[in-house]
Design brief:
The chain is built from 16 helices and 13 strands. The chain is of the alpha/beta class and about 400 residues long. The two termini are about 20 Å apart. The chain binds uridine-diphosphate-N-acetylglucosamine (UD1).
Length: about 400
């Protein structure tokens, strides 16, 4: 039965409530445009934001809320770090009473972090419909915790929004009904487009870090590189982390490397006795950077080396060459249409791809369909119609 929201007299309380969930850094740039689009809906929808507290440092968390104008969370579960089991379980236990109290029409989760699956699982077992933004991405690598989170979240979601067309194929293959899937594009690119003009230039970041001359000197005309590294498969094994950092040092000799260091990576570099590898005039280790700083460093880089999923997409949107330090990607469109090359972890292969790129300029790429800055509005409109329809989708 259709809910009568459109017939409400002016000033009535909203009929529908959407509870949006975030937990870790990559969630924040996705939720920002979704919150804005949901809050702009007419008739009004009651939108609440819940933070699980999976990421909690100012650098990993608060500075994103400030820079992106995300409203302060209505609820913070403050779970903090822990093993996968402990963290996931803690989110579930603390989320359940909130759900009982708020009784939302639906719970909206984004991405593939532990908070995503934890909240989705609690909601579905309580009969609350689940909406998954960034559904259907698959690396086909079950050793990645995020792959487990993706597959399971998609199985229990009622409405699945995809960023690229491969997502639909993956979901259909796994038995998800086609009418639940909507291809809307990439909300992270909404945020990127909306903030490009505010991006902080790389030279200012070097100066702030006390290395104003970092981009000067013999290497400057070659441009600079940006490195991010945080996947357990890259940073939890001493030999792999050492080999990667040694390859980066060779890249730095030609293109100085900005390296914002994730807390997991920072801790492992110290634990494995690798600090000396960062003590290099052509490498600039930085604390985890804010969104506008990352965007500034990314947009003018000659090349970006990364194991982050989001950065693969952002570099494709910016037309900047990206070398992915993983054996696979769940975002194949960044390779097929974008600027991404999947290099793996072998230093010789990474350096060969880098050399080729420095000579040829890298893949030109093109912007994938619907990465146009309007994904969140598509999501909000679809969601409103879906709730009006009793949380069911008309066949597309
Ligand atoms: C998590 C996500 C990963 C995402 C990444 C982005 C999962 C399974 N993984 O990985 O998909 O790409 O976030 O950062 O959800 N720490 C701090 N401060 C913080 C948060 C964490 O110091 O604010 C440290 C803690 O020592 C913690 C470690 O970083 O143990 C790892 O944090 P965790 O949230 O478990 O996983 P990430 O590696 O950040």
């Amino acid at each position: 039965m259709k809910a009568p929201a459109q017939h409400l007299p002016a000033g009535s309380a909203p009929v529908f409530r959407v509870l949006c969930v975030v937990g870790a850094r990559p969630n924040f740039m996705k939720i920002a445009p979704i919150m804005a689009a949901l809050q702009a809906l007419q008739p009004k929808v009651d939108v609440k934001l819940l933070h699980t507290g999976q990421h909690y440092d100012v650098a990993m968390n608060e500075q994103y809320f400030t820079a992106l104008g995300i409203p302060s969370p209505d609820i913070n579960l403050e779970v903090g770090s822990g093993s996968h089991a402990a963290q996931t379980a803690e989110v579930m236990v603390r989320f359940e009473p909130v759900l009982d109290e708020l009784k939302p029409t639906a719970v909206l989760v984004v991405g593939d972090v532990n908070s995503t699956i934890a909240c989705a699982l609690v909601a579905v077992k309580k009969g609350t419909p689940v909406i998954h933004v960034e559904a259907g991405l698959r690396s086909f690598d079950r050793a990645m915790p995020e792959e487990i989170n993706r597959v399971l979240t998609d199985q229990i979601s009622d409405l699945l929004f995809t960023t690229e067309e491969s997502g639909r194929d993956n979901l259909l293959r796994e038995g998800v009904a086609g009418e639940r899937i909507r291809f809307v594009g990439n909300v992270m690119i909404d945020t990127l487009r909306g903030n490009l003009e505010r991006a902080v230039p790389a030279a200012a970041i070097a100066a702030q870090a006390g290395r104003p001359a970092f981009l000067n000197g013999h290497a400057t005309h070659e441009g600079y590189a940006l490195l991010t590294l945080h996947r357990p498969s890259n940073v939890d094994t001493p030999e792999i982390l050492r080999a990667l950092l040694e390859a980066v040092a060779r890249i730095g000799a030609r293109t100085p490397v900005f390296f914002p260091v994730h807390p997991r990576t920072r801790a492992n570099i110290a634990k494995f006795g690798l600090d000396a590898l960062l003590d290099d005039p052509h490498i600039l280790p930085l604390p985890p950077m804010g969104y506008l700083e990352m965007l500034g460093m990314m947009k003018d880089a000659r090349v970006v080396l990364t194991d982050s999923g989001g950065v693969q997409e952002e570099t494709t949107a910016l037309g900047v060459p990206c070398i992915t330090l993983r054996n696979n990607t769940e975002r194949p469109i960044t390779v097929d249409e974008g600027t991404n090359t999947v290099a793996g972890q072998d230093p010789a292969r990474i350096l060969a791809i880098y050399e080729e790129l420095m000579q040829g300029g890298g893949k030109a790429g093109r912007i994938p369909p619907f990465w146009d800055g309007k994904a969140a509005v598509r999501i909000a409109d679809t969601l409103a119609a879906w709730m009006q329809n009793g949380c069911r989708m008309e066949a597309a």
